Amino acid sequence: MWGGRTGALLRVWGLWPAGVLGRRPLSCNAASLAGSNSPQCWNCGGPGGPMRGDGFFCPQCRALQPPDPTRDYFSLMDCNRAFRVDTAKLQTRYQDLQRLVHPDFFSQRSQTEKDFSEKHSTLVNDAYKTLLAPLSRGLYLLKLHGVEIPEGTDYEMDRQFLMEIMEINEKLAEAQSEAAVKEIESVVRAKQNELTDNVSRAFEQDDMEKAKEMLTKMRYFSNVEENIKLKKIPLQ
Amino acid sequence: MAKVVDHYENPRNVGSLDKKAKNVGTGLVGAPACGDVMKLQVEVDENGKIIDARFKTFGCGSAIASSSLATEWVKGKTVDEALKIKNTDIAKELCLPPVKLHCSMLAEDAIKAALADYKLKQGSNPTGPEKSAASM
């Protein structure tokens, strides 16, 4: 009875063989499901499934549907697929979405919905975190354009830049005062701001190679920023 | 695992050599995917033997351990022997997991870069330092 495409759908959604189908009335008809071509609500068989757009709930029975795996972070967070984002708007969107899907709001619902809400909430967290910071946002945008930074030794980075990174790291390691650390911090922040502008311009000009080069430099400076954070701890 | 931790917590040969010295070769390499930077220096005597090595690495524990081990291994070797050090040997010695293999590759590349810099400083004479001293 649950073989074929329907069985496959239920297996993907983790509902079968051991799944629980919820406490809502089950009005689906196996025969009608078996021949259908569009995704259906796991609960009532109505027009549901991983929803396009912001329809996280089945319009018929209001059951939470699984996340749409084809939706990228920009779409999920209602941002244009571009490097520049309105971070205030991003934060509002994050809060609005969590109010809809956070597991806290599903404590009384079925296990299936609890599981879906956890998946939704995690996705929203990942999307927010990725899009908030310029480096991760830029790398994600590069990935969407099919460009990734390769593993392994950097044979393309100019020696002068690597020396600069090495010297800043050495200076930071040797810094004895809070003031010295703060000075390095402001130098690095200025560099990051400049690189962020360069990345933005590169994406606007659709120059993926330039964006990749700038983002790679940002990555090295980002490690310095992490080291600055670590350095600050005992000085406080 | 213990070896990586040991080389990370007690790295050998951290520091710098005089990069202006004629018999010092400096290699500087980076890994863009993780943003690690590694500097490895070698001091070579008149017989082409590496008598000292130092490193400075800013990055993950595996990168630090790999470069620490690299400086230990190059000491006492000739330039040509040191060029034969492979990242797979470093990774095996440190039991690096697959995801950290590129750290050992970075160390191998740092050794090669340091030796290439040394050779460049000796002039275009390909037969080694003892001959170039005579040609000067």
Question: Would you mind describing this structure in some detail?
Answer:
The complex is a heterodimer of chains A (236) and B (136). Chain A is 58% helix and 0% strand. Chain A is mainly alpha-helical and 236 residues long. Chain A folds into two domains: 5-16 and 151-235, Monooxygenase, CATH 1.20.1280.20; 26-144, Helix Hairpins, CATH 1.10.287.110. In chain A, helix 4 (87-101) runs antiparallel to helix 5 (111-132) and helix 6 (134-144) packs antiparallel against helix 9. With 136 residues, chain B is α+β, with helices and mostly antiparallel strands. Chain B has helices at residues 2-9, 61-74, 79-82, 87-94, 101-121, 129-135; strands at 24-31, 36-44, 50-58. The N and C termini of chain B lie far apart (49 Å). Residues 130-136 of chain B have low confidence and may be disordered. At the A-B interface, helix 7 and helix 9 of A face strand 1, strand 2 and helix 5 of B. Chain A: Pfam families: HscB_4_cys (PF18256), HSCB_C (PF07743). Chain A: It is found in: Cytoplasm; Mitochondrion. Chain A: InterPro entries: HscB (IPR004640), HscB_4_cys (IPR040682), HscB_C_sf (IPR036386), HscB_oligo_C (IPR009073), J_dom_sf (IPR036869).
